[in-house]
Amino acid sequence: MSMNYFPRLLRTLKNNELAGNFRQKGNAMFKVRKNREAVELYTRSIALAEDKSECLALAYANRSAVLFEKGFYEECLMNNYPENLKPKLLTRQEKAKILKPLQTSQNYFEPIPKFPEKNKNTFIDCAADSVEIKYSEDLGRHIVANRNIEIGEILAIEKPFCHILIKQHLNHCHQCMKLSYNLIPCKNCTQALYCSKKCRYNANFYHTYECQILTTMKSMKMDKLKLLPLKIALSVKDQYELIKNGCSTPDKDLYRSDRYQEIHNLVANTDSRSVSDLFDRSVTAAVVFHLIKKYTSFFDKPEDEVTFKELVLLHLQTAACNFHEISELAENKDQIFELDEIGAGAYSFLSMFNHSCSPNVVRHCYGPIIVLRALHSIKKGEQCYDNYGYHYALMTKSDRRAKLKKQYFFDCICEVCKNDWPLYQNLPEIKTDIVISDLDIVKLQNGEVNAANKFLVENLLKVTELEKLKPNKNLAELQEVIKQCFALLGNIRRTL
C-alpha cells in the first residue's frame, strides 16, 4: 500500500465575503480612533478581496479615509472608486492634492551613507578601503583592518543578494520591504502586498512560483531559514548552467554582493552536521521540491530539477551560519523604540566576519541594506568582529560557547571567553566625566533622530577613553546608547 506523506496544497483564496468582514472590523476600529488597527484591517480586506470587485474598491476607499485624516495626503490618493462613492471620494482627492505640500515627511530611514570615491575598496564592491579579506586554516576567510579605524567609521554598505519579509506583511512591501500604509495586493494570492505597481511587477520573476505555495509553507511553520533558500533557488534560474559548471569566482576578481557565486560559496558546515540534522534539512528540501514541481510551472527541463534540489539543500545549510536579520526600530507596549526583526537577507561580505562575544562592529538596516560601523577603535592588522547573537554582558561563557558550538560549529576563543569577562551586572564601574543623562535616554527611547545625531557628535570619540580600562560597566552602557543612536538613523516603524 502506497502512502503519500507530502503536504496537501493549502491556499487562502480571494474571498469577498471574508474581505467584507475585515472591512467591517476596520470600520469599528476607525470609529473609536484606533487608526493603526483600522488601516491594517482594511489592508487585510484589500489582500482578500477579488480583483476589480466593488469589495476591493470599498476597502481602498475606507483606508483612504483614515490616511487622509492622519495627514497622509499622498498615500490616500486612489483610483477605481465604486460608482456610489465617487462624488465623496473625488472631493477627498481634491482636498488631498491641495494639502499634499503640507504633508509632514516621515522617512522610513535617514539618507543611506555613501563612501567618497577615494575611500572605496578596490577589491570589495560594498566595503571601504579600510578593510580586506584574509584567509587562514584556523580562521577561514575573515576581515582585517588594513589601517587604524575609529569608532563610528563605516566599514561596509551592503545590499543583500536576496531577502525576504517574514513579518509585518500588512505595512511593508513584499518586494522592497519599504514601510507603506497604502499597499496593493498580488492579484492571485493573499500573502503578498506591494508598495507600488512597479514592485509588484519586479517581483514576478520569483513570486509567480511562490505565490501558489506560500500559504502551505507558512502553515508548516517554515521560517526564514527555509523560505530564503527557496527564494534564492527561484531567483537564480537563469544561472543554472553556470552553477552546474562549478560556480567559481576568480581569486583576483572584485568581490561582489550582487553576484550569486559569492553566496554559493559560503560555508555550509556539511561535514560538521549530524546525520539527524542533514536528514531534517533533506526532508525540507524534498517537500519544497515537491510543492514547486507539482503546483507550479517552474521547471523547463529535468536537469533543472536536480539543480534546484541541490541549491535548496545547500542553502538550508548555509542559512543558519551566514544569513542576517533585517530589523527596524518599533514602539513596544511601553512606547519605547526597540529593534524588531522583520526579515532576513543573504549578505555575502557580512557573512565573512568572525564572531566575538564583545564585537567591534555593529550592523543597522536602511530598508534591506545593512550599514556596518565600528563600535570600537580597531588597530591596523586587527580582526573585525561581528556578534552572532550571544553577547558576554547578557549570557554566561558556558551558555555562549555551547550555543555557538551547536549552531556555528566552533569553540569560541575570543578575548572575552579567554579572560571570562563577567556579566553586565558584575562589571566594575569606573570614575569618569562621561555622563549619559536620563534626558538623553528618554529622547532616544522616544525615537528622536535629532537627539541621536547630537549625542553621537558629543560622545562618540569618548569611547576610546573607556576602552583602555575594559571591561567596565561604563563602556558597556555607552556602547548600547551609541547602538541605539545608529539604529535611529536606520529603519523606524512610526505608526499612524
Automatic annotation (TrEMBL):
CDD domains (UniProt xref): SET_SMYD4
InterPro entries for this protein: SET-MYND_domain_protein, SET_dom, SET_dom_sf, SMYD4_SET, TPR-like_helical_dom_sf, Znf_MYND
Keywords noted in UniProt: Metal-binding, Methyltransferase, S-adenosyl-L-methionine, Transferase, Zinc, Zinc-finger
UniProt-listed Pfam families: SET, zf-MYND
Residue ranges of domain SET in the record: 129-389
Superkingdom of the organism of origin: Eukaryota
MF terms in GO: histone deacetylase binding; N-methyltransferase activity; protein methyltransferase activity; S-adenosylmethionine-dependent methyltransferase activity; zinc ion binding
Cited function: Protein-lysine N-methyltransferase. Monomethylates PRMT5, modulating its transcriptional activity. May also act as a histone methyltransferase. Plays a critical role in cardiac development. Acts as a key epigenetic regulator of gene expression during cardiac development via its dual activities as a methyltransferase and negative regulator of HDAC1.
Protein name listed in UniProt: Protein-lysine N-methyltransferase SMYD4
Source organism per UniProt: Rhamnusium bicolor
Lineage, top ranks: Eukaryota, Metazoa, Ecdysozoa, Arthropoda, Hexapoda
